[in-house]
């Protein structure tokens, strides 16, 4: 029988390239550069789910100041960004674990609300977020990827 151990911890910026194991940084270089710069500036914290071999399996991030004013409020509302699980590990509860982890993390920092944006076409993510309590509609919008909604969850 194999022991199924994992860890979740904040990523050190020097390990940023290991995220290539989860998503294709090389072919999404503009996004990767943006995230890297935000981590460096202290505006983004990324948390990594690793398996027992220390392999990067999934990630989730928090952004403290987003250019769109509805998504972040200083000391009150924080933005959940870029939750992603390596495809072959999906549907096993890892996305839920990561979300629960950052809810606790945000509560410890005294945030009372957490926001996110999700594409209307992303059925798995929409279902997951609804189950986790993102039930308030913040905004609707459209970008180059399609129509999305902004959702809010109260943390207290
Ligand atoms: C959305 C995502 C992060 C969810 O992660 P996950 O580890 O699969 O999440 P969980 O296992 O906790 O829950 C996923 C739900 O889909 C179901 N599911 C079953 N098989 C699945 C599969 N192969 N892929 C995804 N979800 C599956 C799960 O049972 C669960 O259902 P429930 O919500 O009714 O309980 C993951 O699908 C992903 O990385 N998608 C691509 C990136 C993305 O869209 N991120 C969100 C951006 S807003």
Poorly predicted parts: none
Proportion of residues in β-strands: 25-35%
The CATH H-level superfamily of one domain is: Gcn5-related N-acetyltransferase (GNAT)
The spatial strand order of the largest sheet comes to 1-2-3-4-5-7-6
**Small molecules (ligands, ions, cofactors) in the structure:** coenzyme A
Order of helices and strands: EHEEEHEHEE
What gross morphology would you assign? Answer: globular
CATH architecture annotation of one domain: 3-Layer(aba) Sandwich
Q: CA-to-CA gap between the ends?
A: 40 Å
Q: Give the helix proportion (percent range).
A: 10-25%
Label the structural class. Answer: alpha+beta
Discrete helix count: 3
Quick one: CATH class of one domain?
Alpha Beta
Would you tell me the overall average pLDDT? 96
Query: The CATH topology of one domain, please?
Result: Aminopeptidase
Report the biggest beta sheet as strand number plus sense, adding barrel if it closes: 7 strands, mixed
Number of strands: 7
Radius of gyration computed on alpha carbons: 15 Å
List the main descriptive attributes of the protein structure presented here:
single chain; 156 residues; alpha+beta; Aminopeptidase; seven-stranded mixed beta sheet; 3 helices; 7 strands; 24% helix; binds coenzyme A
